[in-house]
Amino acid sequence: MKILITGASGKLGSALQTVLRPGHDVIGTDRSTLDITDYAACGQLIAEARPDMLLHAAAYTDVNGCALNPQKALRINGVGTQNLAAVTAQLGIAMLYVSSNEVFDGKLGRAYHEYDAAKPINAYGWGKWYGERALGQVNPRHYIVRTAWLFAPGGHNFIHAILHAARRGSTLRVVTNEISNPTSTNDLAAAIGTLIESDRYGTYHLVNEGAVSRWGLARFALDEAGLADTAITRISSHQWQRPSRPPEHTPLANIAAASLGIRLRPWQEAVREFVAAEAPG
Known about the structure:
This protein is about 40% helix and about 15% strand. The protein has nine helices and twelve strands.
């Protein structure tokens, strides 16, 4: 299969290339070679590449930046996705879009299923929901993949930040009322690689199994890194001021992909492996 990946220089895009290159003809593009908000540019690049599948991993992922500039968030995450959806539909190309747990409002009281109603409460979530709607309405050959709390080797993410702060001796204050699924970028990329072989289009939740609070994740990572004596003060999200307010309870349930035999390992196993390889000394 010939596959075009947007956001190829990002952590997920890089992981997708690693997973897919052995068996597929993979072309990577990023913002230096394609402005996804430019419809004509999208049309030209995709028409020239003529892939069988477009994996759309590019996104404006700075949630606080999205809150400060919601029009930019909608333009990149929403309109950019709509442009790609329209072009791929016209050319008969399948498309996969990577979305987020933040399309939900966090008030359901249980894990979200694939077809629970989306109710975003922040600019990042609205942009992602716009992209989901655009793709679903324009290109019938689509996969929408929601994921959550990604962590990747060599990057900067929540786990890295906690470990670095602990080793610096900084005071740690972590929220207890934000709950979701910590997810390995490598595990997600492998699951996407399996999913696109299925030709079973639709909406999927691909996350490492199990859910935990931000505080619980921090505690687990510190313990695994040999920092069990590091104290963490429990706080509410309302005590942690920031431009974007994330939904509080958004664990995702993998029902659709599991029915195809696609399951990601428990988050504890993925985090344990990650910490062993990435914990700073």
